[in-house]
Structures are given as C-alpha cells and as structure tokens.
# Entry
Amino acid sequence: MKLLYGSGLRITEGIRLRVHDIEFEMKSITVRSGKGDKDRITTFPASVIPMLKTHLAKIRILHAQDISQGNGSVYLPHTLERKYKNAAKEWQWQYVFPPGNMSTDPRIGITRHHHVDPSMVNKAIKTAVRKAGLHKHITAHTYYHPYDSARPRGCESVG
# Structure
C-alpha cells in the first residue's frame, strides 16, 4: 500500500509491475500500458526501498524454485513471447506481486504465476482500515487521487 500511495499507482498498475519496471537507483517505476494504454514514469519514496528489496528477494527464491520444477514462466504482452523465446522465464519479466499459487492460463493451458488479484489488495486495505478504527470508505483508488491532482500533466509519458 505504501508503494501505491507513494508512487501514485492505480491498483492495476501496481499489481502488473514487473521486476524490470523498478529502477532503484533513480527511485522510479515505469508503468506500462496504464490508463489510456500509455506508458509513464513515476517516482517512489526511498522509504519503500528496503521493504521492496526484501520482497523481491523472496520472490526471486520462489522463481528459482519454480524454474527448478520446470515452471517459472509468466505471461508476456503482445508478441514478446514469440520474439524472445526464453524471456517468459527470465527474472526481469517476473511480476513483482505474484500470488502464492500458480494457475493455468486458460488461453494456452500453461501453468504459471500471474499477478495478484486486485480484490486481494482491496481486502487487505479494508482489513487495515477496520484495524485502524477508521469509519471511512477507503480503497486502493483512494490512494491514487491525492497524487493524481498534484501531478503535472503531460510530462510523465514515456515513448
């Protein structure tokens, strides 16, 4: 949730992040196919770096286990899977937030990790709001709005 708020990410942008979209040195995230199917670059606060690096280390172990079991591929957008034959199993293409279990891709019948479902994020937010004793309707989209109104228009698009 810190990453969503600190980076001004919509929920679908956050759950679809891939490892290569995060640039720690520049504290930036490339959002691919965001609203309007446009790419953009956004920043993230330095305070999320330790948490994010720890999370990615755990995901890398999970990925290595999947590879050793003959799995470990992810869905690749558009025609990238045909263009780069082994890219679907490479670390850089893995989702930053995969679910705990694999699922079968209904289009081609391959078992693989996808990204977490947005409902899982919203359930976690709802639980946190209840535990904090807040009596407001708060969702992941609530995090996006304060950032969106402060962002200069037209300067964040990527090629």
About this structure: Confidence is low (pLDDT under 50) at residues 145-159. Residues 67 and 89 are 8 Å apart (CA to CA). The first strand starts at residue 22 and ends at 23.
